[in-house]
Amino acid sequence: MSDYKILDNVSMADYCTFKTGGKAKKMYLVSNITGLKEVQEIIRSLNQKPYILGNGSNILVSDKGIEDPVVMLCDDFADISVEGEEIVAGAAARLSKVSRVAFENGLGGAEFASGIPGTVGGAVFMNAGAYGGEMKDIITSVDLLKDGEVITIPGSKMDFSYRHSIAMDEDMVVLSMRIKLSKKDMSEIQALMDDFNGRRREKQPLEYPSAGSTFKRPEGHFAGKLIMDSGLAGFSVGGAKVSEKHCGFIINYDNATATDIYKLIKKVQEIVFEKQGVKLEPEVRLIGDFE
């Protein structure tokens, strides 16, 4: 296994859940910490800033593509291990896999994560959450790469808040997390996961490409209800549409371009502010030039 591999002119539509967007000029597939340090040195010497990619479940990449290099963690970074009531999971591990491993070991507390489509790295980076649970509730520590050195930060020092962590504000790469769970009857864990995933299937447009909830939850409101009450259910721009099933989701309904989705996001923000007086902030991260 080599420490990293380089791909040129990669279609980002293949690497994000919106299934659209331009090309990355260069992508590094990094297998281990040695490779990551090497790749960071290469990128730094070129005076570029890398974009660290997880499962691409919370991003929209411009149709113009990405000039900066994309770094995707894989192989060793997908490792998951169980230590008593704690689980250590690498940044490339799927969050759904972590919750499955927890279940198989009779550990409760990670059920909320069973249907979240992202990786551990992305989930830690943005303090992902669902159904009343957030990553901050279970994380005891995070390993990160900062200035070429591996550092460990306790969960209490990660500055976790709604869809935010310290990794967003500083030049850090999430490497792995350690979570603390508790022994629980497997049938109870399964019942809770089945309930959450059933609700997700029933209420969310999972049959279409999307990036999950398009907007953050405004204080005192729900984004989906504000959008629905503004008469925007089914509203579309090109191949992008506000889902009638859940107005908080913008979906790639019919071969949408990233520009279609971006324009629809802007239009929804404009109309909701005009009709409801509330500014919606995208939860989806915009990568590249959209203007």
Structure description:
This protein has helices spanning about 35-45, 95-105, 120-125, 165-170, 185-205, 225-230, 260-275; strands spanning about 5-10, 25-30, 50-55, 60, 70-75, 80-85, 85-90, 105-110, 130, 135, 140-145, 150-155, 170-180, 180-185, 235, 240, 250, 285. The strands form six sheets. Strands 6-7-13-11-12 form a five-stranded antiparallel sheet. The N and C termini lie far apart (about 40 Å). It is about 25% helix and about 25% strand. By secondary structure, the protein is an alpha+beta fold.
Record keyword descriptors for this entry.
single chain; about 290 residues; alpha+beta; five-stranded antiparallel sheet; 18 strands; globular
Tell me the number of helical segments per DSSP (H or I, 4 or more residues long): 7
* DSSP strand tally: 18
- Gross geometry: globular
Strands across the major sheet, in which order? 6-7-13-11-12
Alpha-beta content class = alpha+beta
Distance between the termini: 41 Å
Let me know the largest β-sheet: 5 strands, antiparallel
Task: Estimate the mean pLDDT confidence.
Answer: 95
Q: Uncertain runs with pLDDT below 50, 5 residues or more?
A: none
Radius of gyration: 19 Å
Helical amount among residues, as a percent range? 25-40%
**Strand-and-helix sequence, N→C?**
EEHEEEEEHEHEEEEHEEHHEEEHE
- Classify the beta-strand content into a percent band: 25-35%
Q: Secondary-structure blueprint of this entry?
A:
Blueprint: E1 4-11, E2 23-30, H1 33-45, E3 51-53, E4 59-61, E5 70-73, E6 80-83, E7 86-90, H2 95-104, E8 107-108, H3 120-125, E9 129-130, E10 133-134, E11 139-146, E12 149-154, H4 166-169, E13 172-180, E14 182-183, H5 186-203, H6 223-229, E15 236-237, E16 240-242, E17 250-252, H7 258-276, E18 285-287
